[in-house]
Design a protein that fits this description.
With about 350 residues, the chain is mainly alpha-helical. The protein has a domain at about 1-200: Serine Threonine Protein Phosphatase 5, Tetratricopeptide repeat (Alpha Horseshoe), CATH 1.25.40. Helix content is about 75%, strand content about 0%. The chain has helices at about 5-15, 45-55, 60-70, 75-90, 90-100, 110-125, 125-140, 145-155, 160-175, 180-325. Helix 1 (about 5-15) packs antiparallel against helix 10 (about 180-325) and helix 6 (about 110-125) runs antiparallel to helix 7 (about 125-140). It is rod-shaped.
Length: about 350
C-alpha cells in the first residue's frame, strides 16, 4: 500500500488543499471568566469582528474577536470565529488552544468544532490526532459529511487505504451532488487499483515465498541426502578400514602364533636332541662305567686267582721246601723276590 502513497497524496491535495502555515503569535493571557460587559450579540468588538470575518477579512477581524473572547470567554460564537480566524491566518497553535477550550461545551456545534480541530491537526501533520477528532465529530453528528471526507483524507495520509474507503463512500452517500465527487471517485478508483495491485503483489510474493520454500526444502533434502551419502561412505570406509585392520591383526597374530609354535617346536626339538644327547652320554658313561667295572672285576678276579695261584704255589713251594730242608740242611733260606703281573 505504501508504494501508492505519492500518487494518492497528489490526488488528496485536490480534495483537501492545505494552506501555508505562519508563525503563531501568543494569545492574551487567560483570565478569570467575568460577566460580559455587553449583552451577548451586542458587543461592538464581536459585531465588528463578525462583520469582517463574514467578508473573509480574517486578519482584520482577529483583534476584535480576541477582545470579544477576552471580555466573554463563554461566548461560543466569538470563540468559534476567533479559532477559525487563527486557522485561516496560519496561527494553528492558537486555533488548537481555542478549539480545545470550547469543545467540551460545544453543544450542537460539537461536530463542527471537533472537525475544525481535526483540520488544524491535519495541517500540522498530526494525522493521528486529526483522525481522533474527526471521529469525535462523527460521533457527535453521524450525518456530518465533511468529517467523513476529512477522516478519509487523514487515513490516506497515514497509509491506511483500506480504512479510508468506507469514509469516502459514506461521504458520497451523504453528498451525492458534491462538486468533489469525480475527484473522490478517481481517488477511490486509485485505491481499489492499489488494492488489486497489492493483492497481486501479495499473491506473487506468496508464490515466490512458496517457490523459495520449496527450493529451500529441495536444497535441504539434497543436502541431507548428500550428508547421509557422505556419512554412509565414511562409515563404509571406516568399516573397511576396521576390517582391514582386524584382518591384519589376525594375520599378524596367526604369524606370531605360528612363529611361537615353530619356536616352541624348535625348542622342543632342541630340548629333545639335548635330552637324547644327554641320554646317549649317560648311556655311554654307563657303558664305560660297566666296562670299567667289568674290567676292574675281571682284573680283581684275575689278581685274586693269581694271588690264589701264587699263594697256592707258595704254599706248595713251602711244603716242598720243608721236605728239601730235611734233606739239605745247608740251605739256610731263600731271599729272592718275585713280581706279580
Amino acid at each position: 500500500m505504501k508504494q501508492a502513497a505519492p500518487l494518492i497524496a497528489a490526488a488528496l491535495c485536490l480534495v483537501f488543499p492545505l494552506a501555508a502555515q505562519e508563525s503563531p503569535v501568543p494569545l492574551p493571557a487567560d483570565s478569570a471568566v467575568t460577566a460580559p460587559a455587553y449583552p451577548r450579540g451586542e458587543n461592538p468588538d464581536f459585531k465588528r469582528g463578525e462583520e469582517l470575518f463574514v467578508r473573509n477579512k480574517s486578519a482584520e477581524a482577529l483583534p476584535y474577536l480576541e477582545k470579544a473572547f477576552v471580555a466573554d470567554q463563554g461566548h461560543l460564537e466569538a470563540a468559534l470565529y476567533l479559532a477559525m480566524c487563527y486557522e485561516q491566518t496560519g496561527k494553528l497553535d492558537e486555533a488548537v488552544m481555542v478549539y480545545r477550550k470550547i469543545l467540551p461545551s460545544g453543544g450542537d456545534r460539537t461536530a463542527l468544532i471537533a472537525c475544525n480541530l481535526g483540520n488544524v491537526y491535519f495541517r500540522q501533520g498530526s494525522v493521528s490526532f486529526a483522525e481522533q477528532f474527526y471521529t469525535q465529530a462523527i460521533r457527535a453528528d453521524p450525518s456530518y459529511a465533511s468529517a467523513y471526507l476529512n477522516r478519509a483524507n487523514s487515513r490516506i495520509k497515514a497509509g491506511a487505504l483500506r480504512e479510508a474507503l468506507p469514509d469516502y463512500e459514506r461521504y458520497l452517500a451523504l453528498e451525492p451532488e458534491s462538486p468533489k465527487r469525480s475527484r473522490i471517485e478517481q481517488l477511490v478508483g486509485l485505491i481499489r487499483e492499489e488494492f488489486a495491485a497489492a493483492e497481486i503483489r501479495r499473491l506473487m510474493a506468496e508464490e515466490a515465498a512458496r517457490a523459495a520454500a520449496e527450493q529451500k526444502a529441495m536444497e535441504e533434502a539434497a543436502a541431507r541426502a548428500e550428508e547421509e551419502r557422505r556419512v554412509r561412505a565414511a562409515e563404509a570406509a571406516a568399516r573397511a578400514e576396521e576390517e582391514r585392520r582386524v584382518r591384519a591383526e589376525e594375520a599378524a597374530a596367526r604369524a606370531e602364533a605360528e612363529r611361537q609354535i615353530r619356536a616352541e617346536a624348535e625348542a622342543r626339538a632342541e630340548a629333545e636332541q639335548k635330552a637324547r644327547a644327554e641320554e646317549a652320554a649317560r648311556a655311554e658313561e654307563e657303558r664305560r662305567r660297566r666296562v670299567e667295572e667289568e674290567a676292574a672285576r675281571a682284573e680283581a678276579e684275575r689278581r685274586r686267582r693269581l694271588m690264589e695261584e701264587v699263594s697256592t704255589s707258595l704254599q706248595a713251594q713251602a711244603e716242598d721246601a720243608e721236605g728239601v730242608s730235611a734233606g739239605a740242611e745247608d740251605l739256610s733260606g731263600y731271599e729272592g723276590e718275585f713280581e706279580l703281573e
